[in-house]
Design a protein that fits this description.
This protein starts with 5 loop residues before the first helix and ends in an 11-residue tail after the last strand. The chain has helices spanning 6-9, 13-19, 58-61, 103-110, 132-139; strands at residues 24-27, 30-41, 67-72, 76-82, 90-101, 156-158, 169-172, 186-189. Strands 1, 2, 3, 4, 5, 6, 7 and 8 form an 8-stranded antiparallel beta sheet that branches. Helix 4 packs across helix 5 (132-139). Helix content is 16%, strand content 26%. By secondary structure, the chain is of the alpha+beta class. It is built from 5 helices and 8 strands; from the N terminus they run H-H-E-E-H-E-E-E-H-H-E-E-E. The chain is globular, with a radius of gyration of 16 Å. The longest helix has 8 residues, at 103-110. Strand 4 and strand 5 form a beta hairpin. The structure holds a DNA duplex.
Length: 200
DNA sequence: CATGGGATTGACT
DNA sequence: GTCAATCCCATGC
């Protein structure tokens, strides 16, 4: 498998968001195929970089092909791929994966600590990575991964195998935002059960 | 320096 | 369907 480099990400963010569907995210021995993404761009108010360069958004304004990881609701880490040329702030939020490698490690990291009653209660493995906070927990991705090179790691993204046809996509509006809610900048692998709710 | 608000999730009614 | 948890950081005095 080939890790994607800056030339892949240094393009319009909507294009990258579409083409990341079917690619593979890997970290610390666990991996999954991307089945859901959202695009964010400095020109629209839902993007963290809308109000300019701050310490928090510096990764977004930096070179493409890096990880932008931030904390949401004080609890969850969110994984994004920085896109467009350096100086233009844009990123693709990775929202859901189909788990492929390291399922046991994912289950262990997703198991709630200090709650033995929850062991074995998981309905199925679609709960492992079916949301942006879930997949970072399952893969062990944390804020320390912010700014890391997605070609080199520790978090890496690999190209979709060239011998397979482009997947059929469904698109809709982005989830959990209060501004620019009308933009259809969410992309899903049509019919995949690992997509987060609401399904498209 | 104090305050307020999330690109969410899981537990509960 | 409702709701709390929890922390980083942007903003404003």
């Amino acid at each position: 498998m080939r890790a994607l480099g800056p030339e892949f990400y240094a393009r319009p963010v909507l294009e990258v968001a579409r083409e990341l569907i079917g690619c593979t995210v890997e970290h610390d021995g666990a991996a999954g195929v991307i089945v859901e993404t959202e695009a964010y761009h400095e020109s629209e108010p839902a993007c963290h970089a809308f109000s300019g360069l701050t310490p928090r958004t510096s990764t977004l304004f930096g070179p493409p092909g890096r990880a932008y990881v931030y904390r949401s609701y004080g609890i969850h880490a969110m994984l994004n791929a920085v896109c467009e040329p350096a100086g233009v702030a844009a990123a693709v939020l990775i929202r859901a994966l189909e788990p492929t490698v390291g399922l046991a490690a994912m289950r262990a990291r997703r198991r709630r600590v200090g709650d033995p009653a929850s062991d074995g209660r998981r309905s199925s493995d679609v709960d492992l990575c079916s949301g942006p906070g879930k997949l970072t927990q399952a893969l062990g991705i944390s804020l320390r991964d912010n700014g890391g090179d997605l070609r080199v790691g520790p978090v890496r993204i690999f190209a979709r195998p060239a011998d397979r046809p482009a997947p059929e996509l469904a698109l809709g509006t982005r989830i959990g935002i209060t501004k620019a809610v009308e933009l259809s900048w969410r992309f899903c692998l049509a019919g995949n059960p690992n997509v987060s709710r609401p399904r498209l």
